[in-house]
User: Which sequence fits this backbone?
């Protein structure tokens, strides 16, 4: 088997940093990471990214002009020395420019969108596209992805008949309406998992597909958000692991069987067998072919 994937933990980052020079102010925008190489043919992404890139460049250019003026005065101040008759005047001029620069940065920063203008759906799909591309190109053989933090306030009102955030709705108190919305949110997450599997399945590799050479685990650390129950976790393990995975099964294990037993089996399938992992008691029976 060539690859190994786990659908668990990853963050989405669209901004990069430009280090502030001397001690004036942070730039009003930290710029936009250039993702053109990954999403060069992804027009929806480019349509959203290009205006932001131009806006960031314009602000950075304005900031650099003011920053250069400030730095020129600071260099003169440093060269003059504390005993120079010019020192006090230059010090006052530098202080004035620094204040103006900080005000400019704060004012322009306030004009920028408070949140990424892309939707949560867009961001998730882009991350899954990037993960699939990384596997196809053999850029990596291990990847993790997390849809959101455990206590994220992510609002799922973009789904039909859902009103509110995932975390709040997960504390359903057995209310029928909240349970219905909770089910719909969970269904949406499964649909994204299916999307990733479909992408991998559509990528030819040798006589099979990239999915055939992967192990893609989907799950969570809690079975039910209302009770915070970590028992009897529902998990899905897809792919064939290069023929090592006994796929097409629904397996049920004794209560409180260590999840790490599954990880031991997956590591074995990956060609890195271990006797123990975390609180494991051995490989999980029936997983490997």
Assistant:
């Amino acid at each position: 088997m060539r690859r190994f994937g786990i659908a668990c933990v990853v963050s989405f980052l669209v901004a990069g940093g430009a280090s502030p020079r001397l001690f004036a102010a942070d730039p009003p925008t930290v710029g936009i990471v250039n993702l053109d190489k990954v999403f060069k043919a992804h027009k929806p992404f480019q349509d959203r990214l290009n205006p932001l890139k131009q806006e960031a460049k314009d602000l950075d250019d304005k900031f650099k002009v003011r920053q250069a003026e400030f730095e020129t005065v600071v260099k003169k101040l440093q060269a003059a020395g504390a005993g120079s008759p010019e020192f006090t005047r230059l010090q006052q001029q530098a202080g004035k420019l620094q204040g103006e620069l900080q005000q400019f940065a704060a004012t322009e920063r306030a004009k920028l969108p408070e949140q990424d203008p892309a939707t949560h759906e867009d961001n998730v799909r882009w991350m899954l596209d990037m993960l699939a591309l990384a596997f196809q190109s053999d850029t990596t053989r291990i990847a993790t992805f997390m849809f959101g933090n455990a206590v994220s306030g992510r609002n799922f009102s973009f789904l039909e008949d859902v009103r509110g955030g995932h975390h709040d709705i997960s504390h359903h108190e057995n209310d029928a309406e909240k349970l219905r919305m909770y089910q719909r949110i969970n269904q949406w997450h499964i649909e994204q998992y299916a999307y990733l599997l479909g992408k991998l399945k559509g990528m030819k590799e040798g006589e099979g597909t990239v999915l055939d050479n992967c192990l893609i685990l989907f799950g969570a650390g809690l079975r039910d958000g209302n009770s915070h129950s970590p028992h009897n976790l529902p998990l899905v393990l897809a792919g064939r692991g290069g023929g090592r995975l006994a796929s097409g099964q629904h397996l049920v294990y004794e209560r409180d069987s260590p999840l790490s037993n599954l990880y031991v089996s997956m590591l074995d399938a990956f060609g890195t067998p271990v006797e123990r992992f975390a609180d494991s008691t051995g490989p999980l029976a029936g997983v490997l072919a």
Observations:
- Residues 7 and 145 are 5 Å apart (CA to CA).
- Strands lie at 5-7, 204-205, 208-209, 215-218, 236-239.
- The chain has a mean pLDDT of 77.
